[in-house]
Amino acid sequence: MPPHSDIVKVAIEWPGANAQLIEIDQKKPLSSIVREVCDGWSLSGSEQFALRYADGPQLYITEQSRSEMKNGTILRLAISPARAARQLLDRIQSHGIDARLEALKELAKLSADPTFATEFINMEGIGTLARLVESGTHFGEMLAFTLTAFLELMDHGIVSWDLISLSFIKQIAGYVNQPMVDVSILQRSLAILESMVLNSHSLYHRVAQDITVGQLIGHLQVSNQEIQTYAIALINALFLKAPEDRRQEEHNNPMDQRLTEMASTLAQKHLRSIILNHVIRGNRPIKAEMAHQLYVLQVLTFNLLEERMMTKMDPSDQAQRDIIFELRRIAFDGENDPSGTEKRKAMYTKDYKMLGFTNHVNPAMDFTQTPPGMLALDNMLYLAKLHQDTYIRIVLENSSREDKHECPFGRCAIELTRMLCEILQVGELPNEGCNDYHPMFFTHDRAWEEFFCVCIQLLNKTWKEMRATAEDFNKVMQVVREQITRALAMKPSSLDHLKGKLRGLSYSEILRLRQSERMSQDDFQSPPIIELRERIQPEILELIKQQRLNRLCEGSCFRKLGNRRRQEKFWFCRLSLNHKVLHYGDLDESPQGEVPLELLTDKIPVSDIKSVVTGKDCPHMKEKSALKQNKEVLELAFSILYDPDENLNFVAPNKYEYCVWTDGLCALLGREMGSDLTRSDLDTLISMEMKLRLLDLENIAIPEAPPPVPKEPSTYNFTYNYG
Q1: Are 594 and 577 spatial neighbours (Cβ–Cβ below 8 Å)?
Q2: Long-range pairs for 66-72 at CB < 8 Å and ≥24 separation?
Q3: Cis peptide before 372 (omega within 30 of 0)
Q4: Best-predicted range by mean pLDDT among 90-104, 363-377, 554-568, 697-711?
Q5: Which residues face 585 on adjacent strands?
């Protein structure tokens, strides 16, 4: 008799017959199990049948995936993938319109199954679908289902995108360029073009020849956020794959410019204002995928600065040196320069010192370090020309101070530019799953330069508030970094809003916040307080443990890896109220509220869980590449390992959910909760409890002391009970 762990008890359905309740031996070939099931219903030709899940995506069960079957799973006997593929291929080529529509509808659903997809593709099914699209004779639902099936099949990566014909691309681009087209067709067409660009260098050029910025801008002005998301995703894809030498090109009419040459257009007023007014400030809340695409667009826009950031100044280049001369001229009005070369040189040196350059004789040397390279000089020139009064005030104000308290403008501007590049991660690839976009960067044509201008004024103000000297330079920069990062975390909606946030983050306020946070972290270190902390900690840890377990009972939704964005597939997991079973199952969409246990068809007894692993130790992360865009996914990954040798893999939607679930699972298994969130919660709750108890002690009425007795003064020792 096979071991208990090799036996799975399932129910198998067949239309018009009673379900069979059988025990499947996992060591037995799947074909033998299918034959036995067919025999139970007196069906001949068992090789023409296969098993599928009855719920969820209803995937076919293969020798590779059979280990995922659990006790209590409901299966369905169905025709085999090869037979289904042949029947559907014949039906979609039939002359009957109704039969063809039903076949395409079923194909669109089955194409997500990798087993079926392999069979259908092997029968030249991709070519058949492509010809249906190229013919231009399909419209409405029939075309929408055709495009859906095509995209699902291509998404498996079995067929190279390079094999797609030029006529197919033109047909798909035509749907995008049509003024009036069905929403479902437009969505799928945009998604197909995005996949072409991301997966094929040659198709990128073909798509870019047929799609212009103006055509995509039209799709940003609609009320459907899904269409807006697909349009921005296509802009991002084309921008991301654009050749480096064509990203920086300028064009007179950006509305007619091809997307191969569109980098400069991202900063153009029309595109920016359309995104700001119709997307960011629209009447609908920004969904997670739209937020991600806006973040990607923001990152790619800032990455245009990378070339200047990594370009060193050439001290022998007269054109570059003229920029420094211009900075000096604007600040000190050099019309009355002395005629003598030596006098002019001496005066220039003095002026460069007043401008705050480190190298007074040859300030060009200050811009030879990368980053920030020439980007710092660009920022300084923008400030001097576009905000001339502010520039002159900062320079002259500091040149009139005592030497020890002057704020060196040049040095500060260079270091500030480097800091802003670090904060905004200029030159970094977008992180998968990150939604951290800033609305204010879409409110101005020169958002980067204006951001610098706001921050250099903040730096000058903070320098004065700190009464800093040259020795305090690094301390000032640390405070300014903290002011900027705190303000950005508040997500200001405009640059004026940012200024308001920064005004509220003065140096004294930063000190107050630091002190408050320090108090919450380590409080007092006297022995009675330490003793009180030790007594309180177990009680607080138990509260945190119960909170984590309660969150697991509420459950969370997770995104499945390997699926295209905007066509996401989800699954849900929650702990039973008695803390004995983990229930999970697939969902068609992200849930709004609690998911009943009845809808979660799979389960794992807690007693079967052996361990919880995180990060690179997870089975689903070991084959992932270490590219930048996968780092965040790696940090949010965890897996449950359970008997016999199986695992349930997670990627948390954010850091909070990651900490809650890993801590909750550790608490469930009786192990120590060690996440940053638990440490933070522990410190916060202990500090709050200690302050409440100490406050109670301060309010204790101390009895009035008796009158002192001469010669024998009384001594009163009060011992507080901290329990």
Answers
A1: no
A2: 66/26, 66/30, 67/26, 67/646, 69/8, 69/10, 69/24, 69/26, 70/8, 70/602, 70/603, 71/8, 71/9, 71/10, 72/9, 72/10, 72/11, 72/601, 72/603
A3: yes
A4: 363-377
A5: 572
In 3D, which of 87, 145, 143 has the Cα closest to residue 116?
87
Q: Which two tokens stand for residue 539?
A: 């009680």
Contact 37, 44 (CB under 8 A): no
Compute the average pLDDT of residues 698-707. Answer: 45
Query: What domains lie within the chain, and their CATH numbers?
Result: 7-79 (3.10.20.90), 160-249+256-285 (no CATH), 309-518 (no CATH), 537-680 (2.30.29.30)
Instruction: Check: CB of residue 618 under 8 Å from CB of residue 639.
Output: yes
**Closest to 432 in 3D by CA, of 572, 238, 625:** 625
Determine the pLDDT at residue 265.
Answer: 53
What is the identity of the amino acid at 192? I
Amino acid at 640: I
- Say what the alpha-carbon torsion angle 688, 692, 694, 699 is, to the nearest 10 degrees: 160
Q: Tell which residue, 150, 310, 162, 297, has the closest CA to residue 234.
A: 297
Grade residue 137 by pLDDT with cuts at 50, 70 and 90. Answer: confident
3-state secondary structure of 638: strand
Confirm if 441 and 451 have CB atoms less than 8 A apart.
yes
Averaged pLDDT for residues 465-479? 93
Average pLDDT estimate for 148-177: 94
Per-residue pLDDT reduced to its tens digit, 424-454: 999 998 988 789 999 999 999 999 999 999 9
> pLDDT by residue (tens digit) across 13-26?
999 999 999 999 98
> How crowded is residue 540: how many other Cβ atoms within 10 Å of its Cβ?
18
Q: How far apart are CA 392 and CA 380, in angstroms?
A: 12
- The residues, any chain, with a CB within 8 Å of residue 439's CB and separated by 6 or more, are 276, 280, 491, 492, 493, 494
Helix H or strand E encompassing 541: helix 527-554
